[in-house]
Amino acid sequence: DADVTQTPRNRITKTGKRIMLECSQTKGHDRMYWYRQDPGLGLRLIYYSFDVKDINKGEISDGYSVSRQAQAKFSLSLESAIPNQTALYFCATSDLGLQGASEAFFGQGTRLTVV
Amino acid sequence: KQEVTQIPAALSVPEGENLVLNCSFTDSAIYNLQWFRQDPGKGLTSLLLIQSSQREQTSGRLNASLDKSSGRSTLYIAASQPGDSATYLCAVLKIASGSRLTFGEGTQLTVNP
Predict the structure, then answer these.
(1) Do B43 and A45 touch (CB under 8 A)?
(2) How far is CA A11 from CA A2, A17, A54, A62, B10, in A?
(3) What is the pLDDT of residue A97?
(4) A42-48, Cβ contacts within 8 angstroms, sequence gap of 24 or more
(5) pLDDT in tens, A30-87
(6) Minimal-distance CA residue of chain A relative to B106
(7) What is the rounded distance in angstroms from the CA atom of residue B60 to the CA atom of residue A3?
């Protein structure tokens, strides 16, 4: 089984619909992240969480919200999906190592299309 | 603001060739630099992590170097194989970033049989 699991892997939704992307991890890491990837723009951080009670905005958080339900689970919601949120979404985890941060591990991605 | 640049954007080589991928970053105040591989439509697989105090890391045919003072890292792939074809991404973790990785846009590598 993958260390970082995202569901669903693919999703097509209509404009205005609410959608939730889920992420679970078995790494035992405290830190979890949501990124989106767009051609020509690379990967950009949406939200991140250092523990269950901690939520932080990334560089492109508008239109998104998150929930850290447990150490192992971090969900991303699009409250009212719009076409420019069509992208490949990645969940990632890392831990606080001796030198500040450890290796980051990524899920397989969720391809979201908003029509 | 941290910026990460990868050159070249695309590279095509014959099987067996040794090759170097380049990554440069503007802010040397980093915790670490990480190289990833991404296959089309797939997730990111971590290849090598170099802490800021290290100069290089090796894994099999891969060797990554880090020169923090000049803001450069290279990924060396020895004896390339068609299975190495993928997009290679570098990412830096800046000390003042709040744990945000800053990614380059990647180098798309094709190894021809």
Answers:
(1) no
(2) 20, 12, 28, 20, 29
(3) 61
(4) A42/B89, A42/B103, A42/B104, A42/B105, A42/B106, A43/A90, A43/B89, A43/B91, A43/B101, A43/B103, A45/B100, A45/B101, A46/A76, A46/A89, A47/A76, A48/B98, A48/B99, A48/B100
(5) 889 999 999 888 899 999 998 898 999 998 999 999 999 999 999 999 999 999 999 9
(6) A42
(7) 22
> Coil, strand or helix: which one is B83?
helix
Cβ of residue B30 closer than 8 Å to a chain A Cβ: no
* Strand ordering across the sheet containing B4-7: B4-7, B19-25, B72-77, B62-67, B56-59
Asked if A103 and B46 come within 8 Å (Cβ–Cβ), the reply is yes
Per the structure block, which two tokens stand in for B54?
Answer: 């290290």
Residues composing chain B: 113
The C-alpha atoms of residue A27 and residue A29 are separated, in whole angstroms, by 5
- Give the C-alpha separation, A64 to A111, whole Å: 16
Whether the CB of B42 is below 8 Å from some CB of chain A: the reply is yes
pLDDT tens for each residue of B27-60 = 888 889 999 999 987 889 999 999 888 999 999 9
* CA pair distance B25, A2, nearest whole angstrom: 31
